[in-house]
Specification:
The strands form two sheets. The protein has a two-stranded antiparallel ribbon with strand order 1-4. Strands 2-3 form a two-stranded antiparallel ribbon. It has seven helices and four strands. The protein is mostly helical. The protein has one domain. Keywords: Membrane, Transmembrane, Transmembrane helix.
C-alpha cells in the first residue's frame, strides 16, 4: 500500500512546491510594487497629495498581499471579517514608522535602529497572520516568521541606502534603436528597488513553504 501511495504523495508534494513558488512570486511582487511606489513618493516630492497617494498604495498592497495568503492557504477566517484588515494596517504602520524613525534620528544610528524595529514588527505581523491562517494556533516552530521579517527588513535597509548614497549613475554605451539612440542608466534607487524585490520574494517563499507544510 505504501508503494501505491508514493506516486500520489510525490505528486502532491510537487504541486505544493509549485503553488508555494507561484504564491511567493505573486505576494513578493505585490509587496515590492506597493512598498517601492510608496517609498519613491515618500522620499521624493514631499506634498500632502503624494503622501496620501503613497499611504493608499501601501495599504492597498498590504490588503492584496493578505488576500493572496488567505487564498493560498484557504483561510476563511483571514478572508472574512476585520482580521485581515487589522493585520494589513499593522504592516502599513510599521513601514511608515520605519521611515519616520530613520529620518528623525538620522544617520548612521537612525537607519539601523529603524530597520531592526521594522524587522520585529514584520515578524510579529507574519506570526499573527500565520496563526490566523490555521484552525489551531499551535505551531511547533515559533520562530518561523522571524526569517521572513528579517529578509524584508534587510530589503528595507537597501532602500534606505539607495536613497541616501551620493548621486551616481552607470550609463551604458549608446545603443542604436532605429533612427534613435538609447542609453540605459542605472541609479542607486533602481538597485535598491531590485534588491528589495528579490528579498521580498525570498521572504514570502519562506513563509509559504512553512504555511503549506503545516
Amino acid at each position: 500500500m505504501s508503494v501505491l501511495r508514493q506516486p500520489d504523495v510525490l505528486g502532491r508534494t510537487r504541486r505544493q512546491h509549485v503553488l508555494g513558488a507561484t504564491a511567493a512570486l505573486s505576494a513578493g511582487a505585490v509587496e515590492a510594487v506597493s512598498v517601492g511606489v510608496w517609498f519613491v513618493l515618500a522620499v521624493g516630492s514631499r506634498t500632502a497629495t503624494t503622501a496620501l497617494i503613497g499611504v493608499v498604495v501601501l495599504v492597498g498592497g498590504a490588503l492584496l498581499r493578505a488576500r493572496v495568503v488567505a487564498a493560498v492557504v484557504g483561510s476563511r477566517r483571514l478572508r472574512r471579517g476585520p482580521r485581515w484588515l487589522g493585520l494589513s494596517l499593522v504592516a502599513t504602520a510599521g513601514w511608515i514608522c520605519w521611515l519616520l524613525l530613520a529620518e528623525t534620528v538620522g544617520s548612521p544610528v537612525g537607519p539601523i535602529v529603524a530597520t531592526a524595529l521594522l524587522g520585529a514588527v514584520l515578524s510579529a505581523q507574519f506570526a499573527l497572520e500565520q496563526a490566523a491562517c490555521r484552525s489551531r494556533s499551535a505551531d511547533p516552530d515559533r520562530l518561523a516568521a522571524v526569517v521572513p521579517g528579517l529578509l524584508l527588513a534587510i530589503g528595507a535597509g537597501l532602500l534606505l541606502w539607495s536613497a541616501q548614497v551620493p548621486d551616481w549613475a552607470i550609463d551604458s554605451p549608446p545603443l542604436p534603436l532605429g533612427v534613435a539612440t538609447v542609453v540605459v542608466r542605472i541609479e542607486p534607487l533602481q538597485l535598491g528597488l531590485l534588491g528589495f524585490g528579490v528579498l521580498a520574494i525570498c521572504a514570502h517563499q519562506r513563509r509559504f513553504q512553512r504555511l503549506l507544510e503545516a
